Amino acid sequence: MLVKKFKVTINAPIVLGFVFVCAISLIIGTLTQGMSTEALFMTYHSSLKNPMTYLRFFTHVFGHEGMSHFIGNTIYILLLGPLLEEKYGSSCLIKVILVTAFITGIVNYIFFPQIALCGASGVVFAFIVLSSFTGFKNGEIPLTFILVVILFLGQQIYEGIALHDNVSQITHIIGGAIGGFVGYFFNRK
User: CA 173 to CA 106: how far, in whole Å?
Assistant: First the structure.
């Protein structure tokens, strides 16, 4: 009987690195009782003279308010990220993460000055919409993309109007729009 050996491979370095940084920030945040999360991994309306304000426009996607918040985002990132990293490449995924972080950070800073923002849900929704483009062919729009956009936008608009919770639906919508733009741009050829 032949026994085949398996080895563990790093199949998506950007996705795994992103999740690793999120996990480390959660651990440090827990150990500091949220002080490090507030200082490094949360964006909020602070002085533009403070250099940390600009850093937090990007780093807020690494912070999570607790284990369930972290797990909820991480599951989607680990599920969708490797497929996207394989299809579009590591540099594209880095750009999606950075652009999503920056735009959601700026929008939150300008339009929601009283709300602090942390978490990777904007990145998650960028990945969700971007993944619906994997079947995109010249001159065709996948029905899965149409359904994802309709259901996704409908849910986020409804929840933004009807619910008053700690969820930033605008971040989800922006992330989804970025995923849609990137998916269209890279698949239009």
Answer: 14
Per residue in 34-81, pLDDT tens? 999 999 999 999 999 999 999 999 999 999 999 999 999 999 999 999
**What is the Cα–Cα distance from 61 to 181, expressed in whole angstroms?**
20
Structure-block tokens of residue 52: 């940390």
pTM equals 0.87
Q: Which of 66, 157, 85 is nearest to 127 (CA)?
A: 85
Name residue 43's beta-bridge partners: 117
> Which tokens in the block code for residue 105?
């950070």
Of 166, 175, 137, the C-alpha closest to 69 is 166
Q: Give ∠ CA 118-123-129 in degrees, rounded to 5.
A: 145
DSSP code of residue 43: B
**Predicted local distance difference test score (pLDDT) of residue 107:** 92
